[in-house]
Design brief:
UDP-N-acetylmuramoyl-L-alanine:D-glutamate ligase, eight-stranded mixed beta sheet, Protein-Tyrosine Phosphatase, Chain A, 2 domains, globular, alpha/beta, about 15% strand
């Protein structure tokens, strides 16, 4: 066991010894740095494993992980062996590469790294993300998956995943994020994410701001890719919601011809359930449902009951996830202004009568002032902290911003101390929250699991 742990850490050290743009400050998103020709050359050397299965490519600012997790669960319940590649991870690196809900094992990851090393040496200037992506593609090929959900790492146009020939592309809501890299306007960001749209390949888009929607539709028109606007095509309504999830029904299908006739009556009668809370998750379910119904038109055979079971068994940690009910603790990966608006809305819906203590930390390139401004009057106490991530904003800078906003924050140099402070401030009518970064959410979850030896 100890030897496996050591070899696993050595494998991670090797992967992270290369250029890691997720750790790089003030980098411009350019073809010189993000070179798809380099990635194509690398994949060719390892046998182009990404061509051995069907792929669904998913981009967006928010919701791409949740939507991909729902799709993976539905496809798996439909009897399809389905891979899922996502980033970043919350606690363990293995989270990035999965088949169904089964993460790649430490032994498999070690073996994959050892196998790929000679090929890495043949391609200069490979990045950490390119190597991880190639490992995922090869792992899915070796495990003979039927299809794989491939989540874009950053942007889309130059992303290392944008070498696949997908059966379907999906773009979830686009908002301001990675602006120093992708561009300062929504239109520029949308143009980068629209880079995954392929000639003739159907595109599903989630609800978008009108200027973003125009960019996506114009790009799709240029490439002859049919566009399916999920919110226009289907309407969902919540029938019941609790802290464990929400039930919903399909209220209206605008274009019934894209659904097999025998399923129309059944889908209207069915009450679905997702173990994720917040209205934004209903929008993600909307996108996932339209995507699955389109895949049925493209040759898949997934029943309404299998869709229902897939939604019910979706697992996507760190998205308004309850890690404890006594005391009540929720973690969320919200990390930009748009996601914090949704975070605030969920708090108002579910916790209006609770005292709210927020543990907050963020990466230095995020919209920290906007996030704190949005959430400041909703929570009773903010504890500002930082993780060990290289891009974490220093507590001193968080203090400067919060003081400017007139917030009475508590400052903690590390996440462990911030958790203890939060527990001391809580009582039976308190909810402890952690947000601002997936790394903060993950660190709180890890600390709680280590302290209690339980997930809930």
């Amino acid at each position: 066991m100890e030897k496996t742990k050591q070899r696993y850490q050595q494998a991670l050290d090797y992967i992270y010894s290369f250029i890691d743009y997720s750790m790089t400050r003030n980098l411009r998103y350019s073809a010189e740095k993000f070179n798809l020709d380099r990635m194509r050359k690398f994949l060719q050397k390892i046998g182009n494993p990404q061509t051995d299965y069907e792929a669904i490519h998913v981009a967006g600012t928010k919701g791409k992980g949740s939507t991909s997790a729902m799709l993976t669960s539905i496809l798996t319940n439909g009897g399809y062996r389905t891979g899922f590649y996502s980033s970043p991870h919350m606690i363990n690196f293995n989270e990035r590469i999965r088949i169904g809900n089964q993460m790649i094992s430490k032994q498999s990851l070690v073996g994959s790294v050892e196998w790929i090393k000679p090929y890495v040496e043949q391609v200069p200037e490979l990045t950490t993300f390119e190597i991880i992506t190639a490992i995922a593609f090869k792992y899915f090929s070796d495990k003979k998956v039927h299809d794989a959900l491939i989540e874009v790492g950053m942007g889309g146009r130059f992303d290392a995943t944008n070498v696949i020939a997908p059966k379907l592309t999906v773009i979830t809501p686009i908002s301001h994020d990675h602006m120093k890299i992708l561009g300062s306007t929504l239109i520029k960001i949308a143009e980068e994410k629209a880079g995954i749209i392929k000639k003739g390949v159907p595109l599903v888009i989630a609800t978008q701001k009108e200027n973003v929607r125009r960019v996506l539709q114009n790009t799709a028109l240029e490439k002859g890719a049919p566009v399916f606007d999920a919110h226009e095509m289907i309407s969902l309504t919540i029938t019941r919601k609790t802290l464990d999830g929400q039930n919903f029904q399909v209220k209206k299908i605008a274009e019934e011809e894209f659904i097999d006739k025998k399923n129309i009556e059944e889908i209207y009668k069915k009450e679905f359930f997702i173990p994720l809370i917040g209205e934004h998750q209903l929008r993600n379910a909307e996108t996932a449902l339209v995507s699955i119904l389109l895949l049925n038109n493209l040759g898949y055979e997934i029943t309404i009951n299998q869709i229902d079971q897939g939604f019910r068994t979706t697992k996507w940690p760190g998205r308004f996830e309850c890690i404890s009910k006594t005391p009540l603790i929720f973690i969320d990966g919200a990390h930009n202004s748009e996601s914090f608006r949704k975070f605030k809305k969920t708090l108002d819906e579910y916790f209006s009568s609770y005292k709210k203590v927020l543990i907050f930390g963020a990466s230095e390139d995020k919209e920290v002032e906007f996030m704190l401004r949005i959430i400041g009057k909703t929570v009773n106490q903010v504890i500002l902290t930082q993780t060990e991530h290289p891009r974490a904003m220093d507590v001193g800078e968080l203090k400067r911003i919060s003081t400017k906003l007139g917030m009475n924050g508590i400052f903690s140099k590390n996440v462990e101390d911030s958790m203890q402070i939060a527990l001391k401030l809580s009582n039976t009518d308190t909810v402890i929250l952690a947000a601002g970064s997936l790394f903060v959410a993950g660190a709180i979850k890890k600390i709680w699991m280590e302290q209690t030896g339980r997930r809930r």
